[in-house]
Amino acid sequence: MIETYLSYLPSTKYYFDATKVLDFLNENKTNNDELPDMIFVDINMGIMSGVVFLHKYNKLRHRLVKKIDVYIMSSSIDPTDLALSKKYDFVLDYIIKPLNKVTLKKILEPQ
């Protein structure tokens, strides 16, 4: 989707296991060049849910040398899930899937 909709190709990493994301962030917490600019979190992930990830990330983020923008992406319209975007001040938005071109460009295109 990124390759199709954007005029440039950002560097991306994909993890399907949120524990690996937390490990990566912890290992690179002082390396500004390795830390991502943003993270997209799905509420319904295997191994570790997005809710647990957000809780653990909240504890870790203060030790990171870089501020990372976090977006929740989910097909859930459950009010409890939607409230997560307001619970954590580092979550910039709750995006209901499917992700579309307009939303993706708004988030990723340089201003």
Automatic annotation (TrEMBL):
Biological processes, Gene Ontology terms: phosphorelay signal transduction system
A GO term, aspect molecular function: ATP binding
InterPro entries in alphabetical order: CheY-like_superfamily, Prot_kinase_dom, Sig_transdc_resp-reg_receiver
Listed transmembrane segments: none
PROSITE patterns, sorted: PROTEIN_KINASE_DOM, RESPONSE_REGULATORY
Highest taxon, organism lineage: Bacteria
UniProt key word Phosphoprotein: yes
Gene3D superfamilies linked to this entry: 3.40.50.2300
Residues annotated as domain Protein kinase: 1-111
Protein name from the UniProt record: Response regulator receiver domain-containing protein
Species for this entry: Mucilaginibacter gossypiicola
Taxonomic placement: Bacteria, Pseudomonadati, Bacteroidota, Sphingobacteriia, Sphingobacteriales
